[in-house]
Amino acid sequence: MLKSVEMKQQLEALNNKAKALLENKDAKLEDIQAVNNDIEMLQAKIAVQEKIEADEKSAAANKTPEPVNQPQAQEDEIKKFLNAVRTKFQNAMSEGSNSDGGYTVPQDIQTEINELREAKDALESLITVEPVTTLSGSRVFKARAQQTGFAEVAEDGTIPESATPQFTQLGYKVKKYAGFFKITNELLKDSDQALRASLVKWIGDESRVTRNKLILAELAKKAKTAIANFDDLKDVVNEVLDPAFESTSVVVTNQTGYNWLDKQKDSDGIYLLQKDPTQPTRKLLFGLYPIQKVSNKDLPNDTTAGKKAPIIIGDLKEAVVLFDRQQTDIAASDVAGDAFLTDKTLFRAIEREEVKTRDAEAFVYGQIAIA
Length: 371
Prior knowledge:
Strand content: 25-35%
Strand order of the largest sheet: 6-15-11-7-10-9-8
Number of helices: 10
Shape: flat
Order of helices and strands: HHHEHEEEEHHEHEHEEEEHEEHEE
Low-confidence stretches: 88-102
Largest sheet: 7 strands, mixed
Mean pLDDT: 81
Number of strands: 15
């Protein structure tokens, strides 16, 4: 049995222990924190062990170990990858198994994909992104609660018991998101640069749109707050949101909402949105909150009862977390679907992630009724 398999069995036992502690009302905080630390440490060890086993398997198959951290080795890896793409593997892909016909994107192509994904309206830059090495797991957070402070005690009085911090568990289970596109076999015979550019652009754009939709869908689960005018916006930032989020909050809206905000004036006819002195192309709400404008296509208006534009205000890094498996896989086939008859090759990309709400009190999902 592989050592990584034994370690995963140990991880399962730790997860069961953690569940038992959470269900035990008498469980101690230090016990919960200890088992959580053990789980995180074991997850990291499993990731390292799997890499070691994969390297050993590759070295045994090739008779020589792969070069590490050498520019020429990285370039050779890319050429090998692109040549593998041209061979059009046709078998089904499975988790972590290149021999089944699936293969992971080389590191520098992965970097290009990440850069392209973050270059446009990438909402993941506004939230917390946590890399994970397993398909499922959990995190423990201190629950938000109103503390009452210490009680007054007489000189010889009995000290009353104070409430202790409470903790909540946020579980995740990454889901698989995938798509495919067709490319002519003539392009496959073209340069490595042309093929590489096509793969990177398609995967990067699709990944960005996928993550934006997941983030917006998670935010949309919050109850909506009606906003009719600028005073309502002041009520949100002054009374609804905790002052702890004041310096870290942003405003996310679509084109319709931005247009409404940009037209608002005070009694002297001065527009209320102000330019950000550090970024002249960006505007601030109340001179404090940066505004992120998203396309109406990505963040549509609510048309169920009239027309309402979304205005999301708050600290989204505290509000939402994206658990990122950080693994993109590509497979190719020239016989799937109608590829054989049309002389094309189909490329399939798969990535794994999940978006969860971490603190619903850290943001407000507002809606403006547009006449």
